[in-house]
Write a structure and sequence with these properties.
The protein contains four helices and no strands. By secondary structure, the chain is mainly α. The chain has one domain. The protein is flat, with a radius of gyration of 15 Å. The chain starts with a helix and ends in a 5-residue tail after the last helix.
Length: 107
């Protein structure tokens, strides 16, 4: 269950970050409010997930996979440039998050 909560926390954080792009510096009310609400939900779900997961592992996965998803959204939906360097360093983030999880005491 904690992994489902963490996954939902990642997705809501990514949704909130994506809405920030459309808030025009928080000038557009709907995306601004949506972003704030999604961030609050994300933090609530993250806090529930760390009841069973190590905070270091949960936070690394939340931030790492959230970052990787935002990069993908930027590239595929927002027309941001893709470079081999960007992909390489996002790969490092994902590998680091997976490595932390695999080397935690639960494995």
């Amino acid at each position: 269950m904690e992994w489902i909560l963490l996954s939902a926390a990642i997705l809501t954080e990514v949704g909130g970050t994506t809405l920030l792009k459309f808030s025009d510096g928080m000038k557009n009310l709907a995306p601004t409010v949506g972003s704030i609400l999604l961030y609050l939900v994300s933090l609530g779900l993250l806090s529930l997930s760390i009841n069973k997961l190590d905070v270091s592992i949960a936070y690394a996965i939340w931030s790492g996979f959230g970052t990787a998803l935002i990069v993908a959204i930027g590239i595929f939906f927002l027309g941001e440039a893709v470079t081999w360097q960007k992909l390489l360093f996002i790969g490092f983030i994902v590998v680091g998050a997976i490595g932390l999880n695999l080397t935690s005491k639960g494995h």
